[in-house]
From TrEMBL:
SUPFAM superfamilies: lambda repressor-like DNA-binding domains, Periplasmic binding protein-like I. Keywords: DNA-binding, Transcription, Transcription regulation. GO terms for molecular function: DNA-binding transcription factor activity; transcription cis-regulatory region binding. It comes from the Bacteria. The keyword Transcription regulation applies. PANTHER family: LACI-RELATED TRANSCRIPTIONAL REPRESSOR, LACTOSE OPERON REPRESSOR. Gene3D superfamilies: 3.40.50.2300, lambda repressor-like DNA-binding domains. Coiled coil: none annotated. The keyword DNA-binding applies. This is Substrate-binding domain-containing protein. It holds the Pfam family Peripla_BP_3.
Amino acid sequence: MKNADASEGRGDRPRRATLFDVAELAGVSQPTVSKVINGHPDISFETRERVQRALDEVGYTKRHVRPPTTTRSVEVMVDQLGTAYAMEVLRGVALAAETADVDVVVSRFHRAAPDSGWLAPGDWAKRLARAGRTGAIILTAQLGPGHIAGLTQEHLPVVVIDPLDLTNRNVPSVGSTNWAGGYSATEHLIALGHTRIGAMGGRRESIAAVARLHGFRAACASAGIAVDEDLVRFATFDYEAGIEVGEEWLARDDRPTAIFAASDTSAMGILEAARRQGLSVPRDLSVVGYDDTYLASWSTPPLTTVRQPLFDMGGVALRTVLDAAEGREPASRHIELATTLVVRGTTAAPGKEA
């Protein structure tokens, strides 16, 4: 750090410290000092700490301090902001926040710090605390030991929606009955007469994806149907993965007559793969998705899917964060909301139209 003496002045009265004094001592620009003082989140933890030490050393005080706001704010952290899944969850969070008079801020979970690359897990909770957040909601992400330690240190309540795992019982989470959803989707296809069924799961590390495939296997076992392991695949939840898996399976001589997909988005990819193969849905191929986002009702034909109550999950997560901030323990560390099968136009008996 550079040396600065903010006490020099005229006569015996010490000169009031300025932004320039702090910037000189900390070795940063005056705008950076201003951002730190006003709580802007786009400053790295290291820089923020250096500026704070300089502020303390020169005894800087703001000339005009704004009265503290009484409005609470919750940050929703999502990696894939543009998905239909994320939008429906955010809609539930936003409307619940309106009712509770809470502001919602949306950001990425794996975010970059402006001047030091990716934000380290140890700085993650500190950024939220310095921004004055009441709490945070994390969508489909895994909290590592560094994140957990930061949350504990900052006393910051966090709720995870559709967590990748449930290994840390100290962090409340909200999900749905994924096993039951996978079971009901498969049971529906079997009832229509399908015996050669493909199942496309989501990411292998996702407990939701694993539970859906367990439900698929259980329904097949209950009906005495052997599962072809070549037609069970973990993949991402996106459209491109649906096309890739769909094209591979539908090019087989012994192709499946039905496919259960991990999400509505991947189901859209399977429908596109069927179109490219010249197959008619549902006569040549039945497809069931998962989530029941707006994509399901917009597709042609409309998609049969498992409705995951994403809107309600967002609202429950918001209320759980606010309860935790007020010291109220959740009734359960993992809250599961019920799924339901929504039958539309992409499923029918083999060889028949819907």
